[in-house]
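Appendix B, record 7
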Amino acid sequence: MVHGMIVTGEERDPDLLASFWTLAGDLDIRSPGPSPWSLEQRVIAAAEAGFRGIGIDHRDVARFRYGPGLERMHAMIESAGISIIELELLTGWLPGGPWPADENTARVHDDLFAAAEALGARHIKAGVGFAESTASTAAITRAFAALCRRAERVGTSVMLELLAQGPIRTLPRAAEVVDGAGPGGGLLLDAWHVQRAGVPIQAIAALAGRVGYVELCDGPLFTAESALADATRNRRPCGEGEFDLPGFVGAVRQASYRGPFGVEILSASLRTRPLNEIARRCAAGARRLLTPS
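Structure tokens (predicted):
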């Protein structure tokens, strides 16, 4: 089950979703601390900028689940006019992976699946990290399938993200895992990781219905920074970099993708700007890309 799907193709404005990190503000990706802006502030900023969806991280889920309650969280989001919800991040599920399960893994998973059910979330993101894994494709598929079965039970889906480095960095392997896992899952293609992994545009176009979610951002074609620093500091709003974003969007549409487009922009320069400015600028760039005049 996937919530928030577009059924009319390009006949209407695209559904845009502001990812957690796009509106997280001046927050290092390695920090467990909260965003400098409350979830309420981020939801309002997203709605005012024209986003129909928002990404919510586990730290926000935990604050509400063990505080005011997930029902209040849902009411607050719904009252702002936000109807598409993404949750993140499922880690510790990959056998032999760079993010092994620890004493917190089960609680984080429980919190995210409980929130998915209470909020009617479209999907939960599943990550594997940049480090290599000794796990076989079959073992990764079995582990991902277990997440997908759990997602089906609460009426959501799990999106497996292809990353520029690590065990899910090639399109054939990512597609094999998603195909083998059965229903309840999908493939997440992020423009940044697609660019850095060197995934051919024509290969995306041939995916034929396998794409479950798409994330947009722009950036420089080349960088001298490490992969992690590059991915978390150098992204830019659509139209402000050098990526072939029209080609990327055309390819996912050719692959029959008709869902919402996430906007995930982790930028060292942008994250220190006022929240409303970040939301408006990121939404405007994506909207120009997806609805050219």
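Remarks on this record: Strands lie at 16-18, 53-57, 84-90, 123-126, 158-161, 185-190, 211-216, 261-263. Residues 137-153 form the longest helix (17 residues).
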